[in-house]
Specification:
single chain; 81 residues; mainly alpha; 4 helices; 0% strand; flat
């Protein structure tokens, strides 16, 4: 089964949701600095197949630098709620 197939996506979604239900939010979480997001994006390998969402590493690496701030804020809202 391909890692980008709909079946694999459904399997991983169920696994994620099972872990998410057991997750306990920690209000002491700190902001993820945008420069850490930038470093992670720069370290991504280029030329790889996109995931099921169709986003390739090139999309993120060649986007405006504001994407790092947006992703850091998105991450914060994801783990803080």
């Amino acid at each position: 089964m391909s890692s980008n197939s709909l079946e694999r996506n459904a399997e991983l979604r169920l696994k994620f949701e099972a872990k998410l239900n057991g997750y306990s939010s920690n209000s002491d979480l700190q902001w993820i600095p945008f420069y850490l997001v930038d470093k992670c994006l720069c370290d991504m390998k280029l030329g790889k197949a996109p995931g099921i969402d169709g986003i390739e590493a090139e999309h993120l690496q060649y986007a405006h630098h504001r994407i790092c701030v947006i992703l850091a804020i998105l991450w914060w809202h994801t783990v803080a709620t």
